[in-house]
Amino acid sequence: GQEDIRKENVLPWAKRLAKLALTRDLKLKLREIDTELNSVTGDESVLEILAKVENVISGVSSQLVSSEETINLGDFAEEYIEYLVSERPEFSGVQTGFPLLDERLGGGLQAPGIYLIGARSGCGKSFIGTNIANNCIDKDIKVLILDTEMTKEITMDRWLSLRTGIPITTLKTGEFAESAALLEKVRYEVKQIKKHLHYRNVAGQSHQRWISIARKWLLSEVKFSPEGTINPCLIIVDLIKLMDLSDIKNIAEWQLLGQIMVDLQNFCIQYNIAMIVFAQLNREGIEREDQGVFGASDRLIHNCSGAIILKNKAESDYGGGSTADGTKKLVIVKARFG
């Protein structure tokens, strides 16, 4: 007899056909790559040659997280409400570990979205980035730091100091190894961050290269969930600036910074991820607390989901309290979802 056609019987075969279709598309893309590489003359840079391959491959990966079909929101609404009622999803965004900040941002760092954190030089941008990343990995969320200024050794010193409570100077000199207890503690904490924290120094590299590195990390380390979406993660860019001044020819610096933000935003949308980007505040940021204190403010602010100022507390901010409550403050000047 003929079997009944049931949803539970059709779905496994549909998934199998989708994988075979993807395999067919990849074979076609390989032919495209071969054609692209045959056009190489030898005058191109290494990055330009790699870009010929990456541009084709990224087109395939983007198909996995996007669709050209339109969605009837009326049809989707009923399904979405039932999902919320039955599943009661807890994950509403990447939690920074600062409850008040997460609340004001609408439940954490929402995806897709860029969150801009600006501060004057030496105010602690990298330290708060380390804190947020640390809180994320404790929740099994993988983090990638793209660093334009420091080194992996400096970042590791700060990280281990944060997790162990050992002063940075004691860590840097290896003095902690004189205590068996401290040595054991450091080795334990290293194991905790091993699978979740990733770092790459990108000083002197173009933002297109940042995106290429981030894409490879998403596909190789974070990976897709069974539902076909990228697993929860966070990318931190510390900090946004022009790497190659030769790029400034017939375009203003603020325009180029704006284009970097647009490209980063499109990348976040493509993979439905959250990103923190650190930026330098102009001199007005010493006193003022508004959107205009960000360098190239209009272009940067327009393309972010949240803008936050990090600065030292003024005397009036303590309200009779002590520095035990912290010497820094975060001022939210834009919160799209909050």
Task: Indicate the topology.
Layout: H1 7-38, H2 46-65, H3 73-87, H4 99-104, E1 113-119, H5 125-137, E2 142-147, H6 152-164, H7 168-172, H8 180-193, E3 197-201, H9 207-222, E4 233-238, H10 253-271, E5 274-280, H11 297-302, E6 306-312, E7 328-335
Parallel strand pairs: 1-5, 1-6, 2-3, 2-4, 4-5
Antiparallel strand pairs: 6-7
Helix pairs in contact: 1-2, 2-9, 5-6
Provide an overview of this structure:
- The structure is a single chain.
- This protein has 338 residues and is α/β, with parallel strands linked by helices.
- Helices cover 47% and strands 14% of the residues.
- It is built from eleven helices and seven strands.
- It has helices at 7-38, 46-65, 73-87, 99-104, 125-137, 152-164, 168-172, 180-193, 207-222, 253-271, 297-302, and strands spanning 113-119, 142-147, 197-201, 233-238, 274-280, 306-312, 328-335.
- A seven-stranded mixed sheet has the order 3-2-4-5-1-6-7, sandwiched between helices.
- Strand 4 (233-238), helix 10 and strand 5 form a beta-alpha-beta unit.
- The longest helix is centred in the first third of the chain and has 32 residues, at 7-38.
- The N and C termini lie far apart (58 Å).
- The relative contact order is 0.13.
